[in-house]
Write a structure and sequence with these properties.
The structure holds two protein chains of two kinds. In chain A, 77% of the residues lie in helices and 0% in strands. Chain A is mainly alpha-helical. Chain A starts with a helix and ends with a helix. Helix content of chain B is 75%, strand content 0%. Chain B has twelve helices and no strands. In chain B, helix 3 runs parallel beside helix 6. The chains are: A mainly alpha, B mainly alpha. Chains A and B meet through helix 1, helix 5, helix 6, helix 10 and helix 11 of A and helix 5, helix 9, helix 10 and helix 11 of B.
């Protein structure tokens, strides 16, 4: 039953994926100027040879089909700018770094966000709740590229406690600021969601029953409230992972982290067709996968859906 | 919206303290951005190499100091604000222009047309759209008009979904049945009954859309992939401010504070508009 659902979803994702690759491919290839436009002009012969080598002399739809067929075999092609590197190589060096950053930020966001949301809901309309709500609204509004420079200014330049950037030997001090910046807006959003749904759950009649039979509040929260209240948070995790992936691009740039986002930005600046295309395709697949996982968790948590 | 409900609604909006403060701050920012550059003695691009990264000073007229090229931060921040606010508004208009008709048609006709149109939206919804905007910038060069269109063109999906939901619920109202019984044509029904009743939702989500767009534009400009010199926007200014922040934090602080305040206030106003117009309950 579950396997059938997963298979259905995977098959359903194929058209989406194809559309995405198609749009990205045609956008990248309709760019004026080619990847070999350097400041120094190359002779027409050399250019023709290069074009033949990278199959740029073929009609576009043939190039697209070639790209698809090599993609199915897991080959994203050679990088146009980084000599002797394939896009696969670049992604293999950058991806683990980005993944680590993203997973830590996401976990932090869920744990802290849910806790703050519960605390806020339990202290509804009291001073603590007001402060958490103000914090959440502010956290949603202030983007990572504003938070990050200020963190660097305070903790690296003025106080000198943390390194301003870089990524060496997995030092935890290198990760602290990037992870915090990446997680902050998500913490804020999850807090807001969790507070809203927790308040709703706490007003329901079975919670009143639990209160009436004298169950202490922490048991009411742990046993009866978290599971129903967390559902909106779970369904937000799909968009959240997309937001973290997008956010990591700018965070990696600011903190000088050698992840995939930096390759993307550099590729975009250098017109490195295959690299940009490869990263977009991979990001798209990741977002689709994240949505699938989130839906599975949702089905697993919500018994109403499980039996359908 | 009839006259009385507009009055009622502005009254409710201004009795909410936090949204009233936000409305004031936002008005102030818009006024500053609009007429502020005329107040300053300096323009955005004149460099004064004797005053590089000078401290904010009320006497010499550089009220917010100067940047690494000796340019006046005050007028640069306000000019950048013009671009940011303009991008926010124009791109939102683009997304309304696409999203409202799209959602209204899908919701009004329903059935197979609806299913197909919404399937397209669903597919586009899972796209890594920020990357598409960046791709568009890379491919077609970095001019302002394109930024407007690119962001608007990828940002209409929310609007389409919300409008469709609202149209579905309007369709089942008694006055729609009455209009049908009276023999109103489809266009009259859409034009006279559906569109006016969509105003509330569209206003709310347009308000919430503006800060989103401002953030997208500054994100791209921050990466150096958006707006190009001599034009500038808050995102680009934050990026250049970050480079000199260890020597001259005011170059960073000015655009960062203005951007954050604008986005914060627009979000707050949008949220309270939603509460006042009670939109969420209708869109189920």
């Amino acid at each position: 039953m579950l396997w059938k659902y997963i298979a259905q979803r995977l098959v359903g994702a194929i058209p989406t994926l194809l559309v995405m690759i198609f749009i990205a491919f045609y956008l990248v290839h309709s760019a004026p100027g080619g990847p070999f436009d350097a400041e120094k002009e190359i002779s027409a012969e050399v250019k023709a040879n290069l074009d033949r080598l990278y199959q740029l002399d073929q009609p576009l739809h043939i190039q697209f089909l070639n790209y698809l067929s090599s993609l199915i075999q897991g080959d994203l092609g050679p990088s146009f700018r980084y000599r002797d590197w394939s896009v696969n190589d670049l992604i293999q060096t950058g991806f683990p770094v980005s993944l680590k950053l993203g997973v830590i930020a996401m976990s932090l966001a869920v744990v802290v966000g849910c806790m703050l949301g519960i605390v806020s809901a339990l202290n509804r309309n009291q001073i603590l709740d007001d402060w958490i709500r103000i914090g959440a609204v502010t956290g949603i509004a202030i983007p990572g590229f504003v938070v990050a420079p200020f963190l660097i200014l305070f903790f690296a330049i003025w106080l000198g406690w943390l390194p301003a950037g870089g990524w060496q030997y997995n030092r935890p001090s290198d990760m602290l600021m990037p992870v915090a910046t990446l997680a902050l807006p998500q913490i804020a959003y999850i807090t807001k969601l969790m507070r809203g749904s927790m308040i709703e759950v706490l007003e329901s009649s079975y919670i009143r029953t639990a209160k009436a039979k004298g169950l202490p509040i922490y048991l009411i929260v742990l046993r009866h409230s978290i599971k129903p209240a967390i559902l909106p948070v779970i369904s937000y995790l799909g968009p959240a992972s997309a937001a973290i992936i997008t956010g990591s691009v700018v965070i990696e740039q600011i903190f000088g982290i050698p992840g995939m986002g930096r390759y993307f930005v550099q590729g975009a600046m250098n017109r490195d067709y295959t690299l940009v295309l490869g990263v977009v395709v991979l990001y798209g697949m990741l977002i689709l996968l994240a949505n699938l996982i989130v839906d599975l968790i949702y089905v697993w948590l919500d018994p109403k859906l499980r039996y359908e | 919206m009839p006259q009385s409900s507009i009055l009622q609604f502005t009254e409710q909006l201004t009795t909410n303290r936090s949204s009233r403060i936000c409305l004031w701050i936002l008005t102030l920012i818009v006024l500053l951005v609009w007429i502020g550059p005329q107040l300053s003695a300096y323009d955005t691009s004149t460099s004064d190499f004797s005053l590089i990264l000078s401290v904010p000073d009320l006497v010499n007229g550089h009220w917010l100091g100067t940047d690494a090229l000796g340019r006046d931060v005050f007028s640069r921040v306000l000019h950048g604000g013009r671009v940011s606010l303009l991008v926010g508004c124009v791109a939102t208009l683009v997304s309304i222009a696409i999203g409202v008709p799209y959602g209204a048609i899908a919701g009004f006709y329903g059935g197979r047309i609806d299913a197909l149109m919404m399937r397209v939206v669903d597919i586009l919804y899972t796209m890594p759209f920020m990357f598409f905007v960046i791709l568009l910038m890379v491919v077609f060069g970095r001019n302002i008009v394109l930024i407007f269109v690119a962001i608007g063109a990828v940002n209409w999906l929310d609007m389409a979904r919300i409008v469709r939901g609202q149209t579905l619920s309007i369709k089942n109202q008694d006055y729609m049945t009455a209009a049908k019984v009276c023999g109103a044509s489809q266009w009259v029904m859409i034009y006279r009954h559906v569109l006016p009743n969509l105003t509330g939702v569209v206003v709310v989500y347009a308000t919430l859309n503006v800060p989103q767009v401002i953030l997208i534009e500054s994100f791209i400009s921050f990466l150096g992939l958006g707006i190009q010199e001599p034009a500038t926007s808050w995102g680009a200014l934050i990026n250049s401010g970050m480079r000199d922040m260890h020597r001259a934090p005011w170059v960073l602080i000015a655009p960062a504070v203005l951007l954050s305040l604008t986005v914060l206030c627009l979000n707050m106003i949008g949220d309270s508009l939603r509460d006042v117009l009670d939109v969420r309950q209708k869109t189920v």
